[in-house]
Amino acid sequence: MDKIIIDGPCRLSGEVTISGAKNAAVAILPATLLVNGKCHLENVPDISDIRATIKILKSLGSKVEYITRNELIIDNSNITTVEAPYDLTCKFRASYYLLGALISRFGKAQISLPGGCNLGARPIDQHIKAFEKLGATVEVKRGNVYASTKNKLSAGNIFFDVVSVGATINAILAATLVPGTTTIENCAKEPHVVDVANFLNSMGANIKGAGTDVIKVTGVEALKQSSSYAVIPDQIEAGTFMVAAAITKGNILIKNCIPKHMEPITAKLQEAGAEVTEFEDTIRVSMNDTPRPINIKTMAYPGFPTDMQPQICTLIAISKGTGMIIESIWESRFQYTDELIKMGADITAHGRTAMIKGVDTLYGCPVASHDLRAGAAMILAGLVAHGRTEVYNVHHIERGYENIVDKFKKLGAKIEFVRDNGRDENV
Ligand code: EPZ
């Protein structure tokens, strides 16, 4: 089985450059389907979720040309089907964005029902509600989602019952080419929601209010080809390296990030005793002492991101005291704590709450990545643990972190990616 091996403990120092945001890119790539022509994208992360998205787009008829590893041109002028293959979409949650984009441009779409995952139930009722408010008929049967419209979609008012990143973006996608003004209320305000809106506006869409509770989309007849659009830096990857600096009592300059997006993480790391200095598109994080314990409640942006919860838990696990985490987004995001306990952590997790008593030392051992961010947390734990940590199920980590092993190695970690065939490689 592929694994990442870490020999700890270490003190990280140096510079790291953050890649493009996964959760923006997995939406922007399907959003290109709204354009009957070419889209030029830069700062696209080279991760397996993006490779999966590109495979799906190609199956619909998109032509994808890589200029560099992170820059590509997608030509959607010859889409031949609106039915995405079941085997490509069923395991890939963000394939739900195909629904919004395809229904807006072609009036119909079919994907497999995006399954649940290691975080607990992941319903799509709010996505469906948005499409229906615009006049679509949505049917979920035998594992597939079918969206269609007899006539054309029409503008409407959408009020979400829960704040959902995916449903907000899908509503924007669906409304972009619909005549009239669609009002979307109780929206998610995450940076990637704003990035998708900025991308579409750069192609001639008329979307106002992204980043606030209320978004207004005035439909345009067609989008035009753009010169080039660069995806924003990944907030969670940057946050992971910020925690890495703090947890290893290191000193890291994190380049290509947006300090404003990092504020909820910055505030908590400062509370834990880290020194955080912000520059224009760079952050320096350093730490000299053992972290003070902190309490966290995950919230929608601008609250503390759930996708940083396992990483910050690892920091609290070696703090000088007891901290608590309340997970308010996902019902089942503490499974990874069993792995930290194997390494010597003292954590009691029950339902959506975890009580973490800091310990002096973690010890390396074989651990599994339960999901993408849990995998990042295992690497962080391995960096401070004494002895050898072997992280398994690394395909989860490959979904969202470009070159993570190489990046940590350049910061001074003793870390290797070992493929099943014995070949050492970077993720
Ligand atoms: C996005 O998932 C991210 N994924 C997740 O990141 C992230 O954890 C999550 O937002 C929360 O920030 C992508 O952007 C691709 P939601 P999404 O809809 O959009 C409930 C990572 O590690 N809900 O904002 O699927 C839902 O159950 C991943 O990068 C409904 O009830 O999340 C949850 O409690 C994992 N009905 C809450 O809303 C719906 O129709 C927020 O979910 C939709 C969601």
- Helix content range of the residues, please? 25-40%
Count of alpha/pi helices = 14
State the major sheet.
4 strands, mixed
Judged by helices, strands and strand pairing, the structural class is: alpha+beta
Strand order of the largest sheet: 21-22-1-23
- Low-confidence runs (pLDDT<50, min 5 residues)? none
CATH topology of the largest domain: UDP-n-acetylglucosamine1-carboxyvinyl-transferase, Chain
Percent strand: 15-25%
State the oligomer: single chain
Query: How many strands in all?
Result: 23
Short description:
This protein has 14 helices and 23 strands. It has 427 residues and is an alpha+beta fold. Strand 11 and strand 12 (215-218) form a beta hairpin.
Write up what this structure looks like.
- The protein has 427 residues and is an alpha+beta fold.
- The protein has two domains: 210 residues, Enolpyruvate transferase domain (UDP-n-acetylglucosamine1-carboxyvinyl-transferase, Chain), CATH 3.65.10.10; 205 residues, Enolpyruvate transferase domain (UDP-n-acetylglucosamine1-carboxyvinyl-transferase, Chain, Alpha-beta prism), CATH 3.65.10.
- Helix content is 30%, strand content 24%.
- It contains 14 helices and 23 strands.
- The chain has a four-stranded mixed β-sheet with strand order 21-22-1-23.
- Helix 1 runs parallel beside helix 2 and helix 5 runs parallel beside helix 6.
- The longest helix is centred in the first third of the chain and has 13 residues.
- It is globular and about 65 Å long.
- The structure holds ligand EPZ.
